[in-house]
Model the fold of this input.
Amino acid sequence: MLGNEAVAEGALAAGLGFYAGYPITPSSEIAEILSERLPQRGGVFLQMEDEISSLAAVIGASVGGAKAATATSGPGFSLMQENIGFAVATEVPCVIISVMRAGPSTGQPTSPSQGDVMQARWGTHGDHPIIVLTASSVAECFRVTVTAFNLAERYRTPVILLLDEVVGHLRERVEMPPLEAVTVVERARPTMPPEWYFPYDENEGDVPALAPFGEGYRFHITGLFHDRAGFPTLRLDEIQPWVERVFRKINTHLEDILRWEEEGTGDAEIVLVSYGGSARAARHAMKVARGQGKAVGFLKLITLWPFPEAAVRRLAGEVKKMVVVEMNRGQMLLEVERVVAGRSQVVGVNRADGELVHPNDILKALEG
Amino acid sequence: MSRYELRLAGDGGQGLVLAGLILAEAALNEGKNALMTQSYGAQARGGPSRSEVIISDGEIDYPKVLSANLLLALSQDALDRHGRNVAKDALILVDASEVERAMVEGMMRFPFVETSRKIMGSEVGAGMVALGTVVQLTGIVSHRSLFAAIRHRVPSGTEEMNRRAVQAGFKLAQQGGGAALHSQPALASRGQKGGR
Amino acid sequence: MTEHAIPPEHEYLRPNKKFPTVWCPGCGIGVVLGAIIRAVGRLKLDKNQVALVSGIGCSGRMAVYVDFDALHTTHGRALAFATGLKMVRPEMKVIVVMGDGDALAIGGNHFIHAARRNIDLTAIVINNFIYGMTGGQLSPTTRRGDRATTATYGHVEAPLDAARIAEAAGAAFVARSTVYHAVETERLVAQAIEKKGFALVEVLSNCHTYYGRLNKQPTPTQMLRWFRDSTIPVGAQKNGGEEKIVRGVLVDRELPEFTEEYQKLIARAQGKKTDEPLRAATGR
Done:
């Protein structure tokens, strides 16, 4: 199965009801598959006029109560940034899949990159929290896609699934779990009568329920700073609690949101830190190095944002060196350096020319 | 067999992606691990195209070819691009009519494209013919697994034609690869790069 | 209790919102708001089944005042948001309120494609020839020779005709009126809501604060007189007479409607013929 195909399967397993997108390499297989599969289950597939309207339609459908997603790559991801911020501000769940390709600009559409890691974190304007996940195998594409929908619905937030061309266009064996074994989270619906309903009421917890349009709640959604009812406000006593809550709902649930995997870190002197397609090169290199008797471990990030600080912090100081492997000129490297704060040596193995990192380059970085 | 890497390279429209897909699936049918990647340019037809298949008894981490154990080149361009990035004892199979200049000692020439034209009327089956030859020469998968994968993967109605293409490939392998071309030193300084 | 013990204006306005509105005194947008809620009242629509989607600009704030589900979106994208909502809630009446800059400049592409799909949305473009909220900059409908805060020497570009674009793109219904003709606007909005398909009502409106002051019509009254005198009902234009802006229903035609066509597509995908409403997307 193809990585992109596993993403489509994961989205369907998670309960996708609406997809809107615009064709772009190397993500188009996701759209092609869903254009066939979604109508079969009564869902809606739309090819929109651009990526801006694609995410807009996705948010509109989610407001209508559907689980909704779009998929794109670099240039389209850039166009989606404004509406990602809208979904953050209005707390409308949705999933944005971006299969990273080499860039900037048109770059090399059929070649991989991980150049959009910082854009996924900070691409939309205004300070905001965001959840970004990635995957490094076809099987993981399926699992993490389901997780992306679950986190989006649970925390009323856009979730970005940031894949790369290596994984999106990789074909390998995947054992599909039976659908009944897939945990699917449904959006909390309000239980109170409409006249008592406030879509942004912090008395209802960090994640108030979101009523779908068309069911009698008749509330207002805006990208402006808003009060608990969703109306625009200029009052600091209404804005400040909202800002606090939107960050708090992510930052106090890190144990649920953060995912990573460790291998051989217990006795490691050097730890390779990687994610997505690059993690394949890193794990290969780790095995070669271990075969040569070197104490090398591997930390694979699945949640990219919020950054899994705890995992890195625990290893910092315990190991001599951390080697951050990624297909960019050093984006997560900055985060690792920040968290390690000088307690271990940190070096990067970086490539941004559209080719996957070569294991030999990683092995070289283990020396010295 | 720890890790066996095959790179199938040529032009778009020669059926190389399908051939790679079928080989990977045939290996999976035998309980091995296999993965496949493909690389292509902007062109849907023509232009360079390649697929890479890695087969292993163990886990496959790095998904790209590190040092090909087998290179199939259906065009001179494919050989120029990828001829260097191969293992010392690699099998190198080239198309007898498309590849005119030699680059590597001991490479084997087969009329893949010509055979495809005879069977399918175009070069669309060149990859399938070559797949037959690859399987026959390496024994990397059984005929039985290969045909099961073909039945599963080719468009319905074309099973018989693809079966004939693969069988023609078996036959080419049995007949031997013809005279190996001799290396032309002039080419060695051209500085080809693996991949783009 | 008589039928209109509570006037429909009040029934469809949010009881918990403070008035006056954010709009300048005398602004035409309030007239359009009135026309919309009266049209909804005239059609006796269930207010739980009406959504108002708006963009950014003065007109975008209308979503606050109506007692419907209301979505105040990003600049230019209201029709795209509305498209997603309508596809998963096809039973809802979705009214999309935009300004001229919103619908025709930044959102011009979505405007064309929503009309092309002929999706059952009621698109109301409040055309005041200028960007009001940001301070009087030129818009795609600013006329040649007009002044704006970014057209200090007079505008040298041609204006865009929303109605003709909608017609060319494939809208089922196209109408135009002005805020001077409030009753006519209400009637046209009601017709547009009832029409199955993409229905545009362009309403010429007064921004006396910016457009008027910069173009020698600084009061609402002057601008309303201009709308009265410079427009003419469909069919009333005389040959050789002064060229006037035509009001009324400009296009009304039967074309395949998108949500209905999509329902048929789903039936085909499921290998059956069914009239079951398109509901599975929301898991209901």
The radius of gyration of chain B is 15 Å. Chain B has one domain: 4-176. Chain B has seven helices and six strands. The helical segments of chain B are 16-29, 76-82, 112-120, 126-138, 143-153, 159-175, 185-188.
